Amino acid sequence: MSRPTIERAPMLDGRTLLRQVSIYGVFTIVRRGLNVAFTPIYTHYMSPGDYGILEILNLGAWFASIIGMCKIDAAFYRYYVAEKTNEGRGRVLGASLLVTFGLSTIIVAAGIGSLPWLARSASGNTPIPPLDFYLIAAATWLDLATMVPLAYCRVTDRVWFVGVTSVTQALVSCGLSLFGLIGLGYGYRALLIGQLGGSLAAMIACAWALRRATIRWSLAPAGVLLRYGLPMVPGAFFMYVIGSADRFSLARYASFGDVGVYAVAAKFALGVNLIVMGPFTEMWSANQYRLHASGDVPLYQRTAVLYLATLFLFTLGVAYFAYDFVLFAFGPAYHAAVRLVPLLVLGVGVWGLVPTLDLGSLVVPGKTWIRSAATGAAAAVNVTINLLLVPRIGATGAAIANVAGFVFLGLVTGVLSYPLVTMRPPLRRILLMTAIFVAAIFVAFADGSLSYPWYLAARVAAFCVVAMMLYELAWRFHPEGAEEAEEAQVRAGETSVAWRTVR
To answer: Among 356, 375, 378, which Cα is nearest to 309's?
Structure first.
C-alpha cells in the first residue's frame, strides 16, 4: 500500500505569487464574463417579475451562505499552514469538512422554512412555488460544501484546478440555463436548475481533488476552528449590509430610475473588483499565512505595495475613462452615471487597502473579532449617511455613503490590526500612494468646467503623472532585508539540491 502524499504548501517567491494572481485573474474574468454574456438572452425570455423572484431567492441564498460557512475556510487556511506534520494537517482538513457539512446542512434546512416568509414580505405576498426554494437551497448547500476543498487546493498551489473548476461550473450553469429556458420553456426556473447543475459539477470536481488527500475524520480541532471563524461571521453580514444599503435607500427615498442609473455606475466599480481585487484576494487569502509562517517580510511588503499600485492605477483609469464609455455607449437617460463612477470606484480603491492591513487580526490569537468590529462600524456609517443624504441628494448621497463606509473600514482595520504584527507594508509609503490616488480622482469632476478636448487632455496627463509617481513608489521599492532574504533562499535551494543528490 502506497503512503499518502504529504501535502505541504510549496515555497513562495515573487514569481509564484504573480503566476497565481495571473491565473486567478484569467479564470475569474472568463467565469464572470460568461454570466454577463448570456444576460441579454435571459432578458429576452424572462420578464422583470421573473428577475425579481430570482433576486429574492439569490439574496436569501447569499445570506444563508454567510451564516452557513461560519468562516471555516479562513480558519482552515490559518491552521493548515500552521501544522507541521502530515497527521496534523489531515485532522485540520477532516474537521473543516465535517464542521462545514454539518453547519451548512442545518442553516440551509432552516432557510427553507424562512425564505418563503422573506419572499412574501419583500414581494407583496406574490407566491413563489416551494420547488424554487428547494432548488436554490440545494445549490447553496453544494456551494458551501466546495468551500473547504477549494481552500485546500489553493493552499497546496492547485491554482489551475481552482480556475478550471470555477469556469466549468459557469459553463454547466449557463448551458443548462439556456437549454431549460429556450429548449424546454421552463422560464426563470431554468436558471435555478442551471445553478444547481453547476454547483453539482463543482462538488464532483472537489471530491475528485480530495481523493488522495490525507484526511483524518476527527472533530478534535473543531472548537479551535470555530473560535477562529465565528467572530468573523458578523463582519460578513455587515459587508452584506454595506453592499445593499445604497440600493434599498434609493428605492425607498428616490425612485427605481435612480436605482437603475446607480446600478450602471456600480458596474464599473464591480469591474475594478473583478479584474484586480478578486484575483489578488484569491491568491492572498492563503499565501499571506504562508508568508507569515516563513517570516518573509520583504516579499510580503513588495507584494502589498505592487498590488496597491496596480489597484490604484487601474481604478484611476476607470474613474477617468468610464466617462467616455458612458457618454458614447449609453443612452441619455444613463449619462448621470458619469458623476457617480469616480465616487464608487474611489470607494473600491480604499476598500482594496484592507487586505494589506488586516494580517494581525488573522494570525494573532483571539483577534479575529477585529474584522467584525471594522465592518460593523463601516456598515453603521454607511447606513447613517445613506439615511441622511439620499433623501436630499439622491444617488450622489448613496455614492458618498459608499465611500465613507469603505474609508471607515480601512481606518478601523488599520488602527486595530496593523500594529499587532511586525510583518506589514511600509505605512508611510502606503499613505503617500493613497493620498496621490485620492487627489487624482478629483480630476474626473472637472468635466463641468472644461471643454471635452481639454477635459480629455487633463485626464490623460493626470493619469501619466500618477503612473510615474506610483512607479517610483512601488515598482522601484526595495524592502529592507530583501537581498539577504533572497541570498538565504538561494542557499536553501542549493542545500536542497545537494541533499537530493546525496540521497
So the answer is: 356
pLDDT of residue 255: 67
Phi, psi of 165 (to 5 degrees): -65, -45
Query: CB of 345 within 8 A of CB of 318?
Result: yes
Q: b or e along 384-420 (b: 16 or more beta carbons within 10 Å of the residue's beta carbon)?
A: ebbeebbeeebbbbbbbbbbbbbbbbbbbbbebbbeb
What's the 3-state SS for 374-385? HHHHHHHHHHHH
Is the backbone of residue 187 left (phi > 0), alpha (psi -120 to 50) or beta?
left
For residue 35, which amino acid is it?
N
Mean pLDDT of 325-347: 80
User: pTM of the full predicted structure?
Assistant: 0.67
Burial class (CB in 10 A: 0-12, 13-18, 19+), 443: buried
- Residue 337, classified by CB atoms within 10 Å of its CB into exposed (0-12), middle (13-18) or buried (19+), is buried
What is the H or E stretch that residue 117 is in?
A: helix 86-122
How many Å apart are CA 424 and CA 418, to the nearest integer?
7
**The three cell numbers locating residue 49:** 417579475
- Whole-angstrom Cα Rg for the chain: 24
* C-alpha cell of residue 28: 475569474
Q: Measured at the alpha carbon of residue 425, what is the angle toward residues 346 and 10, in degrees to the nearest 5?
A: 110
Contact yes or no for 225/233 (Cβ under 8 A): no
**Within 13 Å of residue 270, how many CA atoms lie on the same side as its CB?**
12
> Which candidate, 132, 401, 413, places its Cα nearest to that of 262?
401
- From the number of C-beta atoms within 10 Å of its C-beta (0-12, 13-18, 19+), residue 149 rates as buried
Q: Give the sign of the dihedral formed by CA 39, CA 45, CA 48, CA 49.
A: negative
CA-CA distances (angstroms) from residue 429 to 14, 244, 434, 479? 20, 33, 9, 11
CA distance 490 to 264: 50
d(CA 312, CA 435): 10
- Distance CA(378)–CA(381), nearest Å, equals 5
All three cell numbers of 353, joined, read 487597502
Residue 219 CA to residue 199 CA, distance in Å, equals 26
Spatial distance between the Cα atoms of 234 and 77, rounded to a whole number of angstroms: 19
Nearest to 215 by CA among 85, 97, 83, 69: 97
Q: What is the pLDDT of residues 278-303, one digit of tens each?
A: 788 877 877 888 888 888 888 899 98
Percentage of the chain lying above the pLDDT 70 cut? 77
* pLDDT per position as a tens digit, 400-420: 999 999 999 999 999 999 999
What is the 3-state secondary structure of 69-95? HCCHHHHHHHHHHHCCCHHHHHHHHHH
Do 95 and 221 meet the contact criterion of CB atoms below 8 Å apart? yes
